[in-house]
Amino acid sequence: MNAQTDHPHVPLEAYTPEIPAQEAADRFYEMMRKRRTVRMYSDKPVPRELIERLVQTAATAPSGANKQPWRFVCVQDPEIKRQIREAAEKEEHEFYTRRATPEWLADLAPLGTDENKEFLEIAPWLIIVFKLAKGDDGGQMYYINESVGLACGMLLAAAHQAGLATLTHTPSPMGFLSKVLNRPDNERPFLLIPVGYPAEDCVVPAKALERKALDEIMVIDGGA
Fold first, then answer.
1. Which of 42, 98, 136, 219 could form a disulfide with 197 if both were Cys (CB 3.0 to 4.6 A apart)?
2. CATH class of residue range 37-199
3. Residues 41, 198: contact at Cβ < 8 Å?
4. What pLDDT, in 10s, does the model give residues 20-34?
5. How far is CA 90 from each of CA 172, 185, 220, rounded to the nearest angstrom?
6. Could you tell me the pTM of the whole model?
7. Rounded CA separation 224/208 (Å)
8. Does the pLDDT at position 66 exceed 90?
9. What is the DSSP letter of 98?
10. How much is the mean pLDDT over the chain?
11. Distance (Å, rounded) from C-alpha 155 to C-alpha 153?
């Protein structure tokens, strides 16, 4: 990096785990491998302060030119959640009956999903992540999808670490979220994330436990 710059820099405050690096990585992996996508929620309350901390954690994600092109709209109002559910189920009905290809529906079958999205009302919080096509001042944004995707991943990890369950819900199209939540034109819906505690009788699809082997997803030094 060129040290000659008109913009100030400060020393890095590096994070160093209190245990050996490999042990720290192993512990984090063991925690994260237990994360599951949950569709059965308890209505047990989740404090606003906890949701705020999740959002603050997500906002530590890297972003193109540090523009931070995200907005996290956090909904706990039952009436707004009802409106979101009704609009989402309308789009999901179209998906399952008209839009989805037979192959797509076959791939979804082991997960047991359908157009019913009651979890959108039962989960105590819905976090709707919007991506900013332009800054609030009209400024340019860079690598928007990549930046917002990274932030969402960090939010999911933070929620799991706090003992909360999540779901990445992507009704298509998602334009209704802008209308229900009265969001400005520069914000585009990116992801709908219910957040809460899993129901006592919560189950998850067995297929969700399957993960590709390391040698299927990792390649060293390129190669064919």
1. 42
2. alpha beta
3. yes
4. 999 999 999 999 999
5. 10, 23, 45
6. 0.94
7. 29
8. yes
9. I
10. 94
11. 5
HEC-encoded secondary structure of 124-165: CEEEEEEEECCCCCCCCCCCHHHHHHHHHHHHHHHHHHCCCE
Closest of 222, 196, 221, 213 to residue 42, by C-alpha:
196
Tokens describing residue 72: 């996290």
Residue position matching structure tokens 């899993």: 198
- Token pair in block for residue 42: 């308890």
Structure tokens at 106: 């076959």
| Domain range list for the chain | 37-199
Residues 6+ apart with CB under 8 A from 210: none
Residue 224 reports pLDDT greater than 90: no
CA distances from 32 to 156, 159, 202, 218 (A): 10, 11, 18, 18
Distance, in Å, from the CA atom of 110 to the CA atom of 12, rounded to the nearest integer, reads: 47
Which amino acid appears at position 224 of this protein?
Answer: A
Distance of alpha carbon 174 from the chain centroid = 15
Record the tokens describing residue 74, joined without a space. Answer: 């956090």
63 pLDDT more than 90:
yes
> Helix 21-32 and helix 144-161: axis angle, to 10°?
90
Measured between alpha carbons, how far is 210 from 107 in angstroms, rounded to an integer? 14
Q: How confident is the model at residue 4 (pLDDT cuts 50, 70, 90)?
A: low
Q: 33: burial class by Cβ within 10 Å (0-12, 13-18, 19+)?
A: exposed
